[in-house]
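Bit of a strange request maybe. I'm writing a small parser for structure token strings and I need a real example to test against, not something I typed by hand. Could someone generate the tokens for this chain?
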Amino acid sequence: MPQFNTGMGRTNGNGRAYCLVCDPLRQQIVGGALKRMTKGRAEAEVQVDDTQMEQEKAGKLNDVAADPAATTTETERLLAVWQSSIAREVQEQKKQAEQLFTWYADLLERTREQETSKKEKSREEKSIKETGDIPTELRAARAATGHSEGAVRSDSPLPLITANLLEEHYYKSPAASDASVYRTSGTGSGIRKSISYSDQDEEQYVAIKTALFGKLIAEDAIARAVADMGTGHAADTAIEIFRRLGLERESIPFDQPLAYHAERLAAFQPELLYTMPSILDQLATRVDDGLFQRLRKVILVGETASQAWQQRMAAKLELAPEAIIDTYGSIEIGTIASYDHERGCYVIADGLYAEGIGTEQLDERLEPLGEEESILVLTSFVRTYFPGIRYVTYDVVRGLRNEVVNGNVIQCFDCLVKRVGRELKHGEKISLYDIETVIYAHLEQADFRVQLIDNALHIRIQSKQLDPQTTQMIRKAVEEQIPEIGMMIRNKLIRGIEVEAVADGEELERGKVKTKKIYY
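Reply from user aminoacidic:
Good idea to test on real output. This should exercise your parser:
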């Protein structure tokens, strides 16, 4: 089994603070659905006097509303309490990860050695500054490492869990005998990624989503729900979530054609539909068949759903815009955030601590991010069989921030901007490796770009060897590289993958094709 990673880095590439966390003062989650993961964790939490908090909310918080200085003081106090609690939680996760994942313990040891080396160099620098003498051995070391006299170096946080680390140590490793295993897109070795869940992980995952869904539908008098999705964790657990919410429920299997999905929806008439944007796109083409006569709410998961797309879909389904709720998650972490129409932002889920980092902290070859943008990094306090400490999602978000609302800390961001990683979602996850494997099986030399446009996957290839017949062969092979994607395309649940030949020398969206990247 692989291991965890922890860290408290708090700035993006522009030096702006972007430190997000689940509210440590409400770890139990709505309705007490989420239990603490390990014995003794309660002792590590910050003890808060309920009476004192109520008095503050009733009295002091009324005063600070009229006094900006007092508001700042109260906000700082709450954030300090929250940060202290998070620090304790991270240390607990770190200890657990070191025990579960030996490679993580090794990684931490290497990090400690690097930090020790940095401190020693810092002492040497101080000595040099005071005496003006640079020892001969230090001059040699600087020459060997390309040290710059004017370089600015900051203290390193605990290590990031990157895709490279996971591919080397986790995704291909044997699962524990008691683990549930979910498989997704490929790795550089051609092996599909395996993500493990313990029984405890499964329970936490379902409890968090049950509490979230209960909150989302609380005012809608919903009694009937349908899950119409692909495969994977979200699809497998949807019926159990509906059961816990006391709903009449049905799940439509992905291996059935679109006509069958339409038939079941028309017969069952759900008030709640849990589905993916790509599938809803296809179902909406049959809106006149009476599929959605009683529909009150749609909860989305999977591909990115822009606000403009959601508004168009709401109009087509004759729903208010706020009746469509976008949720964002990953198989590695679980539910990450959900869109709050009242606040106009995505709110980070309970049980998570989030940070924003710049591209320079991952790979100097990556393009700098835009203003207010950062790559989302997550630490989970409810995962055991995954190294979810400072896990790099490779999703770029805008406006990552902390907010204090009614005396509680929440974490939110404005929108998902794009990905800088190696995989994306088209019904199911497909990685750059999957696409690359197919392309180079048909072409000796090629450059390509991959894009998602209106929930459709587009591959643009530049190669002197590409002809119309080979283009079609590549399209079909990519569709079948992930069997679940191929089946959904054949069943018309999602649109086919578009493959386009690009003339030699033609410029793409970001200049000439030089590297293989995924852009949303």
